[in-house]
Design a protein that fits this description.
By secondary structure, this protein is mainly β. The chain is 0% helix and 49% strand. It has a five-stranded antiparallel β-sheet, with no helix packed on it.
Amino acid sequence: MTEGKFVAVKFGNSDRTYDYVATGFDVAVGQKVIIPMRGREVSVEVVEIKTESELASVSILRIAQPETAPETAP
């Protein structure tokens, strides 16, 4: 069992979660993070913070920036 800081994330509406290493990142449940997946970067939602994981082998890349609504002219 590996100890450290890990996150469980979900892809879209799937019920399945996947563990990623999050050491060095200040993440919270509900936050979006960027992970590497098949040669591209994907935004996923953090659903759990963990201190142990036997499955995590890949680190999150960064915390996703919040999306902002486009400004509208008055």
